[in-house]
Structures are given as C-alpha cells and as structure tokens.
Amino acid sequence: MKHAYILLHIVLICTFLSCKKDPAPTIIKGIVVDSKTNEPISAASIALNIRVPSAHGQETTVTKYIKSDSEGHFSYTTSPDAISCSLYTITAISYAGKRVGYQEFEIRMEATNEFRISLIKLDAVLQIHVKNQHDQDNNVYIVVSNPTRLKEARYVWAEQTFWPFNIQIGTEHTLTIPVRSEEFTTIYWGNDNFSPFATAPFRDSLFINEGEVLNYFIEF
Questions:
Q1: Taking the C-alpha atoms of 191, 192, 195 and 196 in order, what is their torsion angle to the nearest 10 degrees?
Q2: Which of 13, 89, 117, 188 is placed for a possible disulfide with 143 were both Cys, Cβ 3.0 to 4.6 Å?
C-alpha cells in the first residue's frame, strides 16, 4: 500500500510538471509620431529597462535599445525569463527626447502592449559663436536650457552643458543647438565653474521664432 501511495504521488508530480505552461511572450510594440503633424518618425530610439534573474538568485536590470522603422513602427519581444519591463526613453534626431512615465506607459507581462508615442519637434536653431580674444582663460562654461526639452525629459540631461569648453586664444567655435521655438531658451555662461546655473556670471533669455536660426556671440 505504501509503495502504491508513493507511485501515485510521483505520477501526480509528473502530471503537474507536464501540464505547467511556459510563460506567454511579452510583446511591446507601437508607433512614434510627430506631436503636431502625426507623421511617423523613423529611426527613433526606444530604450527598454528589463529586469531579469542573475546569479545567486539576484535580479539585474538590462537596457535594450530598439529602433522605429521607416513607418515609425517598433516591436520587441522579451525573453521568457524577464521579470518586468518598462519603457524608459524615446529619442530621435531634431526632436525633444522623452522620458516616459511608468503609469502612462505601463507594460503588462505575458501580454501584447501597444503604444502611440508622440515627440515634439525642435523647430528652431540656436547658434552660439564662442571666441577667445583676451587670453585671460582658455576655458568657458556654457549651459543651454530649453523649457520643452526639460519638460519632455523630466531630467537635467535635457540641459546641454559644455563644461568646460576649451578654446585657445584667437580661436572661434560655433555650437549648433536645435531648440523648441516660441519660448524662452536660456543661456548661462562664465569663465568659472558655477552651480546652480542661476549663479552663472552671465545669463540671457532668448525668444526664437519657428524656423529661425538665431546667432548668439560669446567673447571672453
């Protein structure tokens, strides 16, 4: 009787294991479009943060980058061992990079998740001409802050810093920076390291029209 019980127990375990299904795939797909025209954006870079098991029962996060195709579409299927997945950033040339919110773009595991992601076009250009003509110091510190870029990124990496920018006497360099029009873009600069940016020795707010290339000159 005891042997029969053990045999039945083994049969039940084997039956359970044979019936256990593999995890369903987690699919993340969608389209990246221009926020104003709704036209698809090709070659946009979509960053996914994926939590997976690692050695000794720990977990680790890996970042996977995928690209949108010529029609703005993207698709990615996680590996079966993925514990969780989240959209992190979306960037494209001439557009403000977006750092997405986890609630707005929540990814459900073992399901197909489809998203429509809009990016704001940077439709004006700021050209900063920097010239060292006094030879007092070869270094200049420059920060460019555009409200749309900051809002979309939700992080300070949207503020472009040239820190420090080394220019030899008599040399001039031009920095070409795409920005969003119809709002004030702020330039902070000085010959010494400054933090926070509001303490910079020099500061200018520039209003740039759509399609405009605005030239700004720094001489030190």
A1: -30
A2: 188
Under 8 Å between Cβ of 29 and 76: yes
Phi, psi dihedrals of residue 41, rounded to the nearest 5°: -110, 120
Residue 47 falls inside a structural domain: yes
Below-70 pLDDT ranges, the chain: 1-21, 102
Q: Which of 52, 87, 119 finishes a domain?
A: 119
**pLDDT value, residue 13:** 47
Would the CA dihedral through 143, 162, 119, 155 be positive or negative? negative
Helix (H, G, I), strand (E, B) or coil at 147: helix
The pair of structure tokens assigned to 136 is: 């007092």
pTM above 0.90, yes or no: no
CATH number reported for the structural domain that contains residue 178 in this entry: 2.60.40
**Which pLDDT score is estimated for 140?**
95
Q: Are residues 163 and 128 in the same domain?
A: yes
Dihedral Cα 167, 173, 179, 182, nearest 10 deg = 110
- CA 206, CA 185: separation in Å to the nearest integer? 5
List the domain range (segments joined by +) for residue 98: 23-119
> pLDDT value at position 158?
85
Question: Sheet of 160-166: strands edge to edge?
Answer: 160-166, 139-145, 184-190, 202-207
Cα R_g (the chain), whole angstroms: 26
Return the pLDDT at 54. 87
215 strand-pairing partners: 127
